[in-house]
């Protein structure tokens, strides 16, 4: 029986797709190409262009394919922008997910794997562990936690098995470096290639544990077949936090531009320190290995140089402009 990867033309979804194909799975990718690229999709997969928000199309696809497993990776993951695009955020990240959950129940999916986010934890809870009470502080984190809760309820009501992963600050090859609202590492690489100064919000001392994609995908792809995973939540990602200033230095060195200029923008409302504990995922899946930040950045830079710089995207359908960072205000309506 085939499996479905939503968002398989995007960064993380494309890597999950490849891992499943390498394991011998038949994979169908569903993506509306709003944030991904068709050439990210491995040619061994079957590509369907469509949106998870279209429940009729979702139902028709599930009826035709009878998926065994669903890997729900699709999301508009611009956490910082999410408070300013609430309607768009909840439509895509909650309603779209509910369409998939409904179809999974109705068409007998055996396991639903969901990529959530450590955004569900909020602030002041580091290192973040799975037994903490989630206290999301932005619309993106609220949406992700709502889907987690819906999966839990759907298991109780209908017996839908699920596994939840909470990745964080994932980077690597195939990332959309032209997205100005998310993926700071890709933004930095693109800005250097375009001859623009690196933009850092605030003093740059906020910390994140930047996670190389190759270290987190194996567990996600293996989840349905791994004992002890059903109904569980797993943090997944790197262990060591770095400041944004340190990341900027690592990227500049990897790009051969150690003196590339930096501009500090006004601070925005964001969690200052965000990194999580991974003892639970390691106990169940084993040690995935840990790619150093320097090596991971070198790999991404080599890929980005071949792919080339991208024109930064603009999200034109901003719903709330109050307190919108000035660097994002251009193109807002």
Describe the structure.
This protein has about 325 residues and is of the alpha/beta class. The chain has helices at about 10-20, 55-65, 85-105, 140-160, 185-195, 215-220, 245-255, 280-285, 295-305, 325-330; strands at about 5, 25-30, 45-50, 70, 110-115, 160-165, 170, 200, 205-210, 210, 235, 240-245, 260-265, 275. Helix 1 (about 10-20) crosses helix 6 and helix 3 packs parallel to helix 4. The chain is globular, with a radius of gyration of 19 Å. The model has no long low-confidence stretch (mean pLDDT about 95).
What is this structure's SSE topology?
Blueprint: E1 3-6, H1 11-22, E2 27-31, E3 46-49, H2 55-65, E4 69-72, H3 86-106, E5 111-115, H4 139-158, E6 162-167, E7 170-171, H5 184-193, E8 198-201, E9 207-208, E10 211-212, H6 213-222, E11 233-236, E12 242-243, H7 244-254, E13 262-265, E14 273-274, H8 279-285, H9 293-307, H10 326-329
Helix pairs in contact: 1-6, 2-3, 3-4, 5-7, 5-9, 7-9
